[in-house]
Amino acid sequence: MNKNAIAAALTTLIFTALPALASAADANVNVQIVDALQKRYGAHPGYRANHAKGVVAEGSFTPAADASMLTRSPIYAGAAVPVTVRFSDASGLPDVHDAAPDANPHGLAIKLHLPNGTDSDIVVNSLKFFPVATPEDFRDLHLAAAASTPGTPKPTPLETFLKAHPSVAKAVGTLGTPASFADEEYYGIDAFVFTNKDGKKQAFRYVIAPAKVVHLPKEEAAKKPANYLFDELPQRLAKGPVTFHIKAQLAAPGDQTRDPTQPWPADRKIVDLGTLTITKTLADSDAQQKKLLFIPGRLTDGIEPSDDPLIPARDGAYAVSFGRRSATP
User: Fold this and answer.
1) Which residue of 68, 100, 104, 125 has the fewest C-beta atoms within 10 A of its own C-beta?
2) pLDDT 10s digits, 10-48
3) Is the confidence at residue 54, as pLDDT, over 50?
């Protein structure tokens, strides 16, 4: 079997395992999202359509004692589990400057390796809430950006889109330029639902909190080397582990879960689910990240997706992108 056939088979397997992607219309928009990203940033063989520039690291996750009160998920059962994580810059550009506007939002993907041999993923980024509410709008945002090249008559397609979608500017306004991947806070912009051992359900959104948040002033960020985030992380880890707290912001009764452009009020309870400890980057990070697929919908018993339409779209688009980069000789 050649590499193209293997990649096609892998993509088919992923889609089969995700019932939410069953409809032809959903599958079509997933392909269109990847097409739009590659139209905007170009197709770079072997790389992700978005968050192309990344680094892989390893460590462990130790759940908090009270986390099992919220969910029966084996992730929070009590024992520490090994993790593989990937930090990344946004965009489909493998050589984007770490402080460039296109590099924001920065991303963190966490793959938890459970004792039964299965994995579960958490995929977050530094946006406090998402710019658009639907997969179709996400596709159209990137198509509009791709069509708005220098010299495009005013108003450009992007300007027209942004005027019709004020949520984009509001979301982008929450971003800062981090001094380090370790000094950024990451958010699960999609809502998920915990179920505990008594069957009680609780909607939540992830918050991955560092020891401290450090954002650079614009003038200082502009002076940084192109790969400053990727150079700094292994240097920091050589001196000791980097830790984050995985937290959950809990929805109150009546809080909507469908629209990721609408954050819940800041006074909603936030609970600590446990400690993420990162100990080292991988020497063969470039090779390893091409093999890794992180999807928000890879969940365990005790955690399920909400009605947010971006969850199945992200799962599907990531699978399409994985199939394309895996097919690269």
Assistant:
1) 100
2) 333 343 344 443 455 667 999 999 999 999 999 999 999
3) yes
Rounded to whole angstroms, the Cα distance separating 76 from 63 reads 5
Assign residue 194 the CATH number of its domain. Answer: 2.40.180.10
| Cβ contact 106:232 at 8 Å | no
How many domains does the structure of the chain reveal?
Answer: 1
Cα separation, 87 vs 181, in Å, equals 7
CB 105 within 8 A of CB 130: no
75-130 residue pLDDT tens: 999 899 999 999 999 999 999 999 999 999 999 999 999 999 999 999 999 999 99
Distance of alpha carbon 156 from alpha carbon 243, whole angstroms: 43
Task: Supply the pTM of this predicted model.
Answer: 0.91
Angle at the Cα of 29 from the Cα atoms of 191 and 118, rounded to 5 degrees: 50
Range of the domain at 112: 3-326
CA 109 – CA 288 distance, rounded (Å): 14
Helix-then-strand count for the chain, H and E: 9, 10
Please state the rounded mean pLDDT for residues 232-258: 98
113 assigned to active site? no
Out of 51, 97, 106, 142, pick the active-site residue: 51
Q: Where are the beta strands (DSSP E) in 96-251?
A: 107-113, 119-125, 186-187, 192-195, 201-210, 242-250
For the record, the structure tokens of 132 come out as 């658009």
Which residues fall within 8 angstroms of residue 142, CB to CB, at 6 or more apart?
33, 36, 37, 39, 40
